[in-house]
Amino acid sequence: MTILLNDVNEKRIGILEYRSDRFINDVIARLQGMPVEFLSLSAERVPIHRDYRVVIDRLSFSYPFLKEVLKNLALNGTYVINNPFTATATNKLVDTNVGNRLGLPFPRTIILPDKEVIEELKETVSPPDLARVVEEIKLPCILKPFDGYAWQDVYVINALSELENLYQALSSRYVLIVQQLIRYKEYFRVFCIGKRDVLFIKWTPKPFSMGHYQYCDQSLIGGAYDNLVTLTIKLNEVLDLDVNVVEWCLDEAGKWWIIDAFNEVPEVIPEALPPEYYAWIVDKFSACVRDKFNSEQKNRILFIS
Fold first, then answer.
1. 218 DSSP assignment
2. Of 21-35, 88-102, 190-204, 235-249, which range is least confident?
3. Tell me: the pLDDT tens digits for 16-55?
4. Which domains, ranges and CATH numbers included, belong to the chain?
5. Less Cβ around it within 10 Å: N or C end of the chain?
């Protein structure tokens, strides 16, 4: 449901999402009585000024025009969920670097140059010594795009020859990373909303959106729960993310690892989640929007001090 306004000067909540999306419509229903509308954009005069106190952004990750509009809105006082500057600046490498500075456990990671930069900057960038990479990371290992999404083009490498062949096949399309393989016995997707509310959901990771959620027995987490909650909140505070999913796993030796620290637009599909968990996400997300609407907060422009 969209609430239309007559007073254009009244502060509003803007929605940037497909109008048919079930999750966002459930959130709007929880914002009953508040001035909510879907955004309508065209050619925008810069600096961009709109009467939005808050914008919920779940589309700009795919559209540079939308991302630039939101950055301009944020610079002029609109609070955007999630911070458009963080979303532009972060990726799996930045997440790993920031996480290591916070003492978070990430797998060993090496970035590989793509073919284009090697060919055009021969005096500056050399082809990678993949044998050395394997020696440092160890086999088996993971090869994936540095800015990948939804486990697409993620490969388990068991031999140097596999790494060489896949690097040749993929490096014209991607900047790739090689990462230590963590053999996990338990895997969780952890929703963090408002930098304060944390929900662990057991997860079976698979590519092409084939992964699935299960109810989380907290005994699987044991005595590590409070520390994992603290670390998850700390990470989201540093990244200035109001809505994020952090992927934690427990390895066969009993050590906890972060596999993915950043999910700008967590997919929230009612049919895919246990009902209690879906209701929790809608409730906490709506509460976060209300809090920002009733505050004077602004997005941080830089998230590393």
1. G
2. 88-102
3. 999 999 999 999 999 999 999 999 887 766 666 778 999 9
4. 12-88 (3.40.50.20), 90-104+183-287 (3.30.470.20), 109-180 (3.30.1490)
5. C
